[in-house]
Design brief:
This protein is mainly beta. The protein has one helix and eleven strands. The longest helix is centred in the N-terminal third of the chain and has 15 residues.
């Protein structure tokens, strides 16, 4: 890999951990779980905040043929995943898309996703007055076994 590609990759990766603010939606810590060669699906995770309240009504990514909002639920001691049509981000109440809960599902991946790559994801949100806007997010691919990112602002040093 050339030095220029490494620098460009690091620059994009640094964008993925900073906050993206658009359409009254702040997106922080977006990441995607890496995959192995034969794996056809994976999850994307992030924290969502809104001052006035918005509804996440759609997701898309060029990394996969199908991209859906999903919820993981327990049903009689069996963990099940199901698509959800929309998710409300209530005013001042963070919504965390995380493993074992709500998340973005990337299905029928175009190629395996390796640690350090960046996956573009478009979030479609409906805000005040039913105005629909798109928010572009660059999510950093983490290792397949990666735990959720720690929120360091709540931990004393």
């Amino acid at each position: 890999m050339s030095l220029i590609r490494k620098i460009a990759g690091l620059a994009l990766a640094s964008l993925s951990v900073s906050a993206v603010q658009a359409a009254d939606l702040e997106v922080t810590q977006p990441w995607v779980r890496g995959t192995v060669a034969s794996q056809r699906a994976t999850g994307a995770f992030m924290q969502l905040n809104s001052k006035g309240g918005v509804t996440l009504v759609g997701v898309a990514s060029p990394a996969a043929s199908v991209v859906e909002l999903h919820e993981m639920v327990m049903d009689k001691d069996v963990m099940k995943m199901r698509p959800v049509p929309r998710l409300d981000v209530l005013p001042g109440k963070p919504l965390e898309l995380k493993p074992g809960s709500y998340h973005v599902m990337l299905i029928d991946l175009k190629k395996p996703l390796a640690k350090g790559e960046v996956v573009p994801i478009t979030l479609t949100v409906e805000g005040q007055g039913k105005k629909v806007e798109s928010v572009e997010v660059n999510a950093l691919v983490r290792e397949l076994t990666a735990p959720p990112m720690m929120d360091h602002k709540h931990h004393p040093h």
